[in-house]
Amino acid sequence: MENTTNVIEMKHIVKDFNGFKANNDINLTLRKGEILALLGENGAGKSTLMSILSGLLMPTSGEIDVRGQEVEIKNPTVAKNLGIGMVHQHFMLMESFTVLENIILGHETTKGPKLDFKNAQQQIEELSQRYNLNIDPKKKVSEITVAQQQRVEILKVLYRGADIMIFDEPTAVLTPQEITEFIQIIKELAKEGKSIILITHKLEEIKRAADRVTVIRAGKSVGTFDVSDVTNNRLAELMVGRHVNMKLDKPSAEVGKTTLKVSDLKVKNKQGILALKGLSFNLRAGEILGVAGIDGNGQDELVRALTGMQHVDSGKISINDEDMTNQKVRKITEKGVSYIPSDRQKYGLILPFSISDNLALQNYYHQPYSSHHVMHYDLIHQHADELIKKFDIRTTGSSLPVSDLSGGNQQKVIIARELDLDSDLIIAFQPTRGLDVGAIEYIHQQLLLERAKGKAILLISYELDEIMQLSDRIIVLHDGDISGEVKPEETSDEELGLLMTGIKKEGNALA
Ligand SMILES: Nc1ncnc2c1ncn2[C@@H]1O[C@H](COP(=O)(O)OP(=O)(O)OP(=O)(O)O)[C@@H](O)[C@H]1O
Ligand SMILES: [Mg+2]
């Protein structure tokens, strides 16, 4: 029998940030044991609403009932005591601490005057086993992968006894394989009676994981639907308020001269192990070269070597026939390389700085934005306003710190800045991570426009869909080398899948 007990009821929630209503009369109910997806475009107010539920923000007005009782969630401790736990969009772990320390931080059990590490460790190991999380509590957070860090966040929430669990875009940082495992984990949790709110922009995941979906748009409720009753197209339309083209129109490529030439590239990873084992490929003007592959097969090292952030052991990188091997980051940028990083908060943005300063990061030091060491702020602001408009960055002004933007809008700031540089080579590493379907459509069109302008685009992505839709050619990275090169119109997800695991297709002259 279907269980329809509501564990959470949020009624008429309003959150006002200095006159801007990020939540403007939102209703949401969560039933016991269900997975409820929360869907809405970038800046719609999802993280804000969930921060209210987890006690990080107080609503301006509205009512929250937890298990039928009206409550006031004044701080995270109140939320914790109500059994509400949240895994945030950007993780909140201390890198230099161990997993164990991170999990018990702020929730220490004591044995007399001492911390009871042993007992904590045992409990954590039990939880890790029970939910198949595969986490070693003694490892340092800096030593584990992003997917594992996320599992630490899940463990943290479980350890604190939450039975209402909120996940803010958990899959944005995961590879397809990890996503499948994650969905299994939350389904298991729901089966055990935990109630789960899942924020994701990927409509496919909502289909796979959720029972119901609540859609919000521009801070307002649009409605709640049974997942089995709505199509992906309908969901996209409900969230953006217009028809979204999920298939791209891609004109044929007009390729020019070679822009990027990589020959016999060897690069070691952070542990000193060879991560690129003699990689060679070319990328021409007017072409999008997709780099497919499972996370950890040399993608990071390739990007870091190309952008000058990591030392190349041997081999050569030339850009427009000029040797750029082991050059400084700024020199490479100035030679005409734009870079959209996959970790926006680590590499792409200076969070406390304003949107306009972040938009000017690559060009504030030269004409026309400054001359003779004097910055021309009116020009910088004016230019920022143009980019905000062009890329539809949802904000109330360019002087706001970037940290106040929603996650997806932070991503748009980087893309706007980097595409605006008018570089010959664009390195796009997971460029649409965390973007809503409308924004993805827009960014994909922008990349195609750059291609039409004769730019060379290197697209490294773990999203096969994105690779298949945009690329003119695809190389597959496996174990630091290319396991195959294919054309999107001549390959299939299955073939790519095999190449990604290192199995080359038969009867084909693949190098
Ligand atoms: N502290 C703040 N001060 C001012 N405005 C804020 C603040 N926090 C969020 N906002 C604004 O509220 C709106 C909603 O942001 P929120 O982070 O809830 O969006 P979201 O739906 O989670 O989007 P995304 O999918 O991009 O993560 C955004 O326009 C954002 O700029
Ligand atoms: Mg968000």
From TrEMBL:
<keyword id="KW-1003">Cell membrane</keyword>
<protein>
    <submittedName>
        <fullName>Sugar ABC superfamily ATP binding cassette transporter, ABC protein</fullName>
    </submittedName>
</protein>
<feature type="domain" description="ABC transporter">
    <location>
        <begin position="260"/>
        <end position="504"/>
    </location>
</feature>
<keyword id="KW-0677">Repeat</keyword>
<dbReference type="InterPro" id="IPR027417">
    <property type="entry name" value="P-loop_NTPase"/>
</dbReference>
<dbReference type="Pfam" id="PF00005">
    <property type="entry name" value="ABC_tran"/>
</dbReference>
<keyword id="KW-0067">ATP-binding</keyword>
<dbReference type="InterPro" id="IPR003439">
    <property type="entry name" value="ABC_transporter-like_ATP-bd"/>
</dbReference>
<dbReference type="GO" id="GO:0005886">
    <property type="term" value="C:plasma membrane"/>
</dbReference>
<dbReference type="InterPro" id="IPR017871">
    <property type="entry name" value="ABC_transporter-like_CS"/>
</dbReference>
<keyword id="KW-0547">Nucleotide-binding</keyword>
<dbReference type="GO" id="GO:0016887">
    <property type="term" value="F:ATP hydrolysis activity"/>
</dbReference>
<dbReference type="InterPro" id="IPR003593">
    <property type="entry name" value="AAA+_ATPase"/>
</dbReference>
<keyword id="KW-0472">Membrane</keyword>
<keyword id="KW-0813">Transport</keyword>
<dbReference type="InterPro" id="IPR050107">
    <property type="entry name" value="ABC_carbohydrate_import_ATPase"/>
</dbReference>
<keyword id="KW-1278">Translocase</keyword>
<feature type="domain" description="ABC transporter">
    <location>
        <begin position="8"/>
        <end position="243"/>
    </location>
</feature>
<dbReference type="GO" id="GO:0005524">
    <property type="term" value="F:ATP binding"/>
</dbReference>
